[in-house]
Every structure is written in structure tokens, then in C-alpha cells.
């Protein structure tokens, strides 16, 4: 395939307007005049008409089946009140023939009622049907009486509330109950739908975060089936099970990592904190100790697979960092660095912890839209923790300065696939000192995702690199984003040769993908957009 007549974002040739893909690799970049040498032998010549070509994005943290199940669920994320959410739920239940009633995305912190709905309220909305209604952070949910009748053992688990709210272990078992009620074919279709959605967003690789209670291990076989049936984004799998090294290898995963939870989430007040929440008398919940972290990291390092943990609260991060430090004492710093272990979310870390993580070669797999949605002095983080703690969260710039590699993702369905929105959120962090440049955020969402999977060959348009690219309609101008206005004049001069990226000012529309290519094969193309 030959692409010409656009702007190709490549560090190899910052003035490139054309590129050629062959055999699943980038084989040439250059200008339109030189592209004539490739035109006769090309299977397809794509006229870009000024469009931007970039490496395809990597979503470094997603849950595919849950994302794709939106077709069978009701989206409660836009409900302005609890009453409105219950009305939407009732309408959905009245028209859905699915075996159970599913709802996602509700956020009680935005409702004037200031609380989740109760089991009795849900029962009135859904009737005598099993229902599972997940909070936006996917760390707590409300279930109906019918679901409890089908799985009465749920009431005996830690985290069960008589009003139907389930958190902690009760939530894990509630999700497993949902898996048992859902046909495998439905999950396979949902995975295909989610990967198709990712391709439409210019995403060429997704890191699937499987774990007991998050998704059944059988989903990895379903992902393989879906991937074999057509061209879709590549999937790198992780299985987050403590002492699960052999199981992760058996499943073909890159690591016993991902959603191996050390704690929960801020919104559900289950993230483990040193000091109490500002709006409740709790410090959250710690699920793993530093000793358990240490032993898991040692086992993964010796097996040459990645270890990784979900950690959000400052107490959870402290346990993980201490566990990593102890592991390095056992197997050596170099072995830990070579393991390229990863931490998911990492929302609250001290400068000292960041320094150690940088020295140990740990990747921070983060979700910038979390700050976009819940950051700021009047949003969820500030409600739960107070403004001072909230301002220090999701410290992209501080982590970058400490030498911690960044990889960005969505945690879909917690937030939607939307890589340019994530890049913009990182560049416009609510705390100005934690902002990174558009260029740094873009790199974290492309090359950073490949490196987070211990694969250094991709995420960039360069000779010999995997031919995973995206073509974009850009509503605004292409600019050079610089961290310092003193160098802006030179960097934006054509003679500087710095690759340009879209203007992502919050008032502007975001770029739209018109084609996504994965390893040289088209995974998505907007009908009629390209000739």
C-alpha cells in the first residue's frame, strides 16, 4: 500500500508526505515526487488529500467483553439524577430480552441525591429479573433481588450490603455470577464489537486486562477466535492472578499482571488510603501486602514474564513500591529492570516512590481521562479526598521527570476508547504542574504502549517498524507542541524538523480516524473517505 499527499508523522523524516507498507512493515517514507517510484507496483494507492498519518494508538488498559456488552446494557453515565437513572433502567428492562438486565456507568457523586439506588428501587424498575448495575469505576455495583435469589451465597461475602450494594469480594463474586448467566457466544460477539470500536478510534493494539472476577479466563480463547476471523487491533493479554504465573503462561499472556488488585477505586471508596476519606469514615481496603507483592514479582521475574498490579490509593502504592524494593533485593535490580513490570493507574505516589519506580524500570499504565472526568477542585476526587490530595493525583509530569515510563489507555468501559481525548487530557491536566506536552502524551499512547508490553519495535513510523498506522481527518492545524515557549519559535520553524501534531485545544474538535491499518492490513476504513 502506498499513501501519498498527506503529512506523515515520523521522526525519520519530519517532512514526509508519503509512505509505503509491504509485508506488514513500513518500507519507505518520503515525499510525493519520490513516491512515483512505488506507485506502479502498489496493490493500492491511497490519496491522503492532506490528511495526517500517525502510528496507530495503543490502549494499554481495557476490558473488551465488558466494553462490547453495551449493546445489551443501559448506559447510565449521562443520567443527571438517580431518579433519571432508574427511569432509564425501567425503560431498558421493558424492552430488553437479554437473560439479565445490565447497566453501566452510574456515578452517585454527580447526583443530587448523593447516594446509589437501593435494591428495592432497582427491583421496582426491573421487576423479577436478575440485574447487575455497575458503578462507573467498576469496583462496586447494585444487584437485584432476583440475582441474589439465584446466587444466595453472595450475601455471605465481605462487602455485601443489605440494600443491594456489592463491593470488594462480594462484587467479585457478583461479577462471576453474571459470567455464569451469560452465554459464551454473547461474550465473543461483545469482544468483536469492542475491537471494531477500537479500530474506529485509530487504535491498533489493545492490552486486555483479565483477572478472576474481571472476566473468565475463557475470554482469551474467544479473543483468539475473533482475531483469527478478520483484521482487528492486536491484543496483548494479561492475567491478574496472585501466584498465577503458570496460568498466565498457559493462557498465552504477557504477564501475571494488570488488574491484580492491591486496592479498589476512589469513587467506590475502596482505594486504600493512609488517611480517611474526606466524605466518609473509612480508609478504603487493602487487598495485598508488600510481602505478597514481593513474592509475586520475584516469581514473575524468574519466569521472564511481567508482573503488575492495580494500585490507586497512596497506601496501596506504598505497599507495591515496598514489595518491588524487596523483590529487587532478592533477584537484583537489573533483573527487575529487565522484567519491565507495570503498575495500573498509579494515581497517588510520592516523589520518593516515583524515584524508586524509575530506578526499577517500572511502567506506569495510566488513564488521563480520569483526571479529565474527576479531577479539579469541585469534582469526584476532591469530594472523596479533599482538594489538596486531589491536586497531586495522576502525576504525569512528575512521573516523567522521575524516569518512569508512561503508557496510556482508557480502562474501557470505565472511560470510552478515545486516544486523542486522552492525549488532550494529559496535556491539560487540572493541575498545571502535572501537564505533559502533547508530544509526550502522544508518545505514551503509541510507542509507550508497545514498550509497556516489552515490545520495542512498534508505535512509530520508521523503516522496518510494524505497519500499524492510522489516517486522520484533522479539524484544526498541525503544530509543534513544545514544553517551553523559549524554544517554540525555533521548533515550529520548518528548518527544525520537529514532527507536527494536531492542535488539541479544549475548544477544538478532535481528529477523526478514516482508516486504521494493523500489520499492513486494513482493520477499519470510513466508507468513501479515501480514494
From TrEMBL:
The lineage of its organism: Bacteria, Bacillati, Actinomycetota, Actinomycetes, Propionibacteriales. It comes from Nocardioides jiangsuensis. InterPro entries: Amidohydro_3 (IPR013108), Metal-dep_hydrolase_composite (IPR011059), Metal_Hydrolase (IPR032466). This is Amidohydrolase family protein. Pfam families: Amidohydro_3. Residues 44-523 form the Amidohydrolase domain. SUPFAM superfamilies: Composite domain of metallo-dependent hydrolases, Metallo-dependent hydrolases.
Amino acid at each position: 500500500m502506498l499513501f501519498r499527499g498527506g503529512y506523515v508523522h515520523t521522526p525519520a523524516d519530519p517532512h514526509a508526505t508519503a509512505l509505503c507498507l509491504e509485508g506488514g512493515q513500513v518500507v519507505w517514507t518520503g515525499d510525493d515526487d519520490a513516491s512515483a517510484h512505488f506507485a506502479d507496483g502498489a496493490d493500492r494507492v491511497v490519496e491522503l488529500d492532506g490528511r495526517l498519518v500517525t502510528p496507530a494508538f495503543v490502549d494499554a488498559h481495557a476490558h473488551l467483553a465488558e466494553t462490547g456488552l453495551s449493546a445489551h446494557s443501559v448506559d447510565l453515565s449521562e443520567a443527571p439524577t438517580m431518579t433519571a437513572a432508574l427511569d432509564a433502567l425501567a425503560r431498558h428492562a421493558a424492552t430488553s430480552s437479554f437473560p439479565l438486565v445490565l447497566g453501566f456507568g452510574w456515578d452517585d457523586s454527580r447526583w443530587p441525591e448523593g447516594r446509589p439506588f437501593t435494591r428495592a428501587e432497582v427491583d421496582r424498575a426491573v421487576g423479577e429479573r436478575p440485574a447487575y448495575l455497575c458503578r462507573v469505576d467498576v469496583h462496586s455495583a447494585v444487584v437485584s433481588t432476583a440475582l441474589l435469589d439465584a446466587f444466595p451465597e453472595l450475601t455471605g461475602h465481605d462487602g455485601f450490603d443489605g440494600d443491594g450494594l456489592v463491593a470488594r469480594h462480594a462484587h467479585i463474586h457478583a461479577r462471576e455470577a453474571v459470567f455464569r448467566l451469560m452465554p459464551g457466544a454473547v461474550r465473543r460477539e461483545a469482544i468483536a464489537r469492542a475491537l471494531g470500536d477500537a479500530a474506529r478510534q485509530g487504535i491498533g493494539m489493545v492490552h486486555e486486562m483479565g483477572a478472576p472476577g474481571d472476566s473468565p479466563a475463557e475470554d482469551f480463547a474467544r479473543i483468539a477466535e475473533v482475531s483469527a476471523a478478520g483484521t482487528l487491533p492486536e491484543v496483548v493479554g494479561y492475567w491478574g492472578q496472585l501466584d498465577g504465573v503458570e496460568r498466565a503462561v498457559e493462557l498465552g499472556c504477557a504477564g501475571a499482571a494488570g488488574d491484580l488488585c492491591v486496592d479498589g477505586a476512589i469513587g467506590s471508596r475502596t482505594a486504600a488510603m493512609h488517611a480517611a476519606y474526606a466524605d466518609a469514615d473509612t480508609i478504603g481496603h487493602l487487598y495485598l501486602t508488600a510481602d505478597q507483592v514481593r513474592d509475586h514479582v520475584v516469581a514473575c521475574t524468574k519466569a521472564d514474564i511481567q508482573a503488575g498490579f492495580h494500585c490507586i490509593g497512596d497506601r496501596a502504592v506504598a505497599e507495591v513500591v515496598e514489595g518491588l524494593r524487596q523483590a529487587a533485593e532478592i533477584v537484583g535490580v537489573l533483573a527487575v529492570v529487565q522484567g519491565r513490570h507495570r503498575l495500573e493507574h498509579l494515581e497517588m505516589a510520592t516523589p520518593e516512590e516515583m524515584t524508586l519506580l524509575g530506578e526499577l524500570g517500572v511502567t506506569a499504565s495510566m488513564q488521563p481521562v480520569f483526571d479529565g472526568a474527576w479531577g479539579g477542585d469541585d469534582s469526584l476526587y476532591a469530594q472523596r479526598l479533599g482538594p489538596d490530595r486531589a491536586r497531586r493525583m495522576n502525576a504525569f509530569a512528575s512521573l516523567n521527570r522521575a524516569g518512569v515510563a508512561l503508557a496510556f489507555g482508557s480502562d474501557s468501559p470505565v472511560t470510552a476508547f478515545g486516544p486523542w481525548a486522552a492525549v488532550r487530557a494529559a496535556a491539560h491536566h487540572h493541575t498545571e504542574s502535572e501537564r505533559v506536552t502533547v508530544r509526550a502524551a502522544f508518545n505514551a499512547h503509541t510507542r509507550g504502549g508497545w514498550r509497556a508490553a516489552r515490545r520495542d519495535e512498534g508505535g512509530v513510523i520508521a523503516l522496518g517498524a510494524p505497519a500499524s498506522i492510522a489516517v486522520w481527518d484533522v479539524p484544526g492545524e498541525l503544530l509543534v507542541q513544545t514544553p517551553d515557549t523559549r524554544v517554540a519559535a525555533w521548533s515550529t520553524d520548518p528548518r527544525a524538523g520537529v514532527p507536527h501534531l494536531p492542535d488539541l485545544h479544549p475548544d477544538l474538535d478532535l481528529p477523526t480516524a478514516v482508516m486504521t491499518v494493523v500489520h499492513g492490513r486494513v482493520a477499519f476504513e470510513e466508507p468513501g473517505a479515501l480514494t
